[in-house]
Design brief:
This protein is α/β, with parallel strands linked by helices. The protein is about 30% helix and about 20% strand. The N terminus is likely disordered.
Length: about 425
């Protein structure tokens, strides 16, 4: 059927499509380069074509010009019905090497699957301390990624502040690559085995210490460290300033459960892990989650959990479970992480210099003000402060924001629910 006879296309749009395709023909006859869908989309926006005319324009032009228009999905997102959304998974492919400059660098895929296992991993949390937004402060795993992917050190003289064992692995790798580790501050009295490995490698580890601030303009020049007393407050008399050019921080991990929540999966707060995890015994049909997203902290735990979930999905589809068990892996269990908000001194009055959401400059003081003004529901506080409304949709700031809002309103974190998790 001719796409221009569709009832979904208005008469005025049909005429516009025909005129624009005529211009395409002239351009082709003149031997000019093919036009991309992105360029067409810009024309649609510039000349007032409606969203109904664009799909028909692409289809009609292809039929008329023998695929002369280059296919490119960049910037194009078509609406689907609720029924269709339940059947589809969408993912974005990044094309690192494009032989033709007219070909897309990204490709949107839509996959219809009978069952889905989510292994979306986890996201590292930043720490809460005064002036924690200074250039030169970055997540420990970000520094680790720079080293592994680009062979780049984040600095030559490094200080690490961590509430989690994973930062010690980053410190060891960076030290072996030539960086000087000046100090590793960890408020926990007994970190895990990786801490002992760092000590045996000669790295200076300060257990029971915390980062209390940063110094320098325009970038980081020094970090302030101090030991903690029995109430988890810094001992000001023993505070020291350590000159450095980068501070790596790790406040533990947040399971990446945005896709789980978007599919209808429920979440429950687990105090021992200081994170929201999938609600046990409740999950959408033919959907499972495994690995760090399900709360696993070791490779052995992740593989065993994935093995169980795969067997469950196979049984739902009518297949026999896999006969081969998950491989046995000997590894040390990490010590429990300490949440970024676990230290009492974080909740000092008017903490305007302690940033929670770095993209929207939301501070601890902003959340305390939201609670005083009566914005006690997470969604209301989100709109009042813009916490979690930036491009990361609260992936790094969300748990800390909920914890601070709960503390300011005198409620447990479990009484609050995370805000809606949307696609990027």
């Amino acid at each position: 059927m001719d796409v221009l006879t569709s009832n979904n296309l208005r008469e005025v749009d049909k005429q516009r499509v025909i005129k624009l395709v005529a211009w395409f023909k002239k351009r082709k006859q003149e031997g000019k380069q093919p036009i991309t869908q992105k360029e067409i989309l810009q024309m649609v926006s510039m000349y007032g074509y409606t969203e109904h005319s664009f799909p028909a324009l692409i289809n009609y032009a292809r039929l008329t010009l023998d695929e002369w228009i280059v296919s490119s999905n960049e910037g194009l997102f078509y609406a689907e019905t609720e029924k269709e959304k339940k059947d589809f998974i969408e993912y974005l492919e990044r094309i690192t090497i494009a032989p033709d400059p007219l070909l897309p660098r990204e490709r949107l895929w839509k996959v219809r699957a009978r069952a889905v296992l989510l292994a979306t991993g986890r996201i590292e949390r930043p720490l809460l301390f005064p002036d924690n937004d200074r250039p030169g402060i970055l997540l420990a795993q970000a520094a680790r990624a720079f080293l592994a992917r680009q062979a780049v050190l984040p600095g030559r003289q490094l200080v690490l502040a961590t509430h989690d064992d994973s930062a010690y692995a980053a410190a060891l790798e960076l030290a072996q690559a030539g960086a000087q580790i000046l100090a590793i501050a960890d408020p926990r009295p007994q970190p895990g085995l990786l801490c002992e490995q760092a000590r045996s490698f000669g790295l200076p580890v300060l257990t029971g210490w915390s980062v209390t601030g940063s110094e320098g303009r325009p970038g980081l020049r020094a970090v302030r460290l101090a030991p903690l007393d029995g109430q988890g407050r810094p001992v000001a008399a023993r505070e020291r300033s350590v000159p450095c050019d980068a501070l790596l921080v790790s406040g533990g991990w947040t399971p990446a459960l945005a896709l789980w929540a978007q599919a209808g999966g429920e979440l429950v707060w687990e105090e021992a892990r200081a994170a929201f995890l999938p609600l046990p015994g409740q999950r959408p049909a033919r959907l499972a989650v495994a690995g760090a997203a399900a709360g696993a902290t070791t490779l052995a735990e992740a593989l065993a959990g994935a093995d169980r979930e795969v067997d469950r999905l196979l049984a739902e589809l009518g297949f026999s479970p896999a006969a081969e068990p998950a491989p046995a892996i000997a590894e040390a269990q990490p010590a429990p992480a300490l949440a970024p908000w676990a230290l009492a001194w974080v909740f000092r009055p008017q903490a305007k210099d302690v940033f929670v959401d770095f993209q929207n400059d939301v501070t601890v003081a902003d959340l305390e003000l939201a609670a005083r003004e009566g914005y006690l529901a997470p969604d209301h506080a989100k709109r009042y402060t813009t916490l979690g409304m930036a491009t990361d949709q609260g992936k790094t700031a969300g748990p800390s924001g909920l914890a601070l809002l709960a503390a300011a309103s005198g409620r447990p974190i479990a009484a609050l629910a995370p805000t809606t998790m949307r696609p990027p």
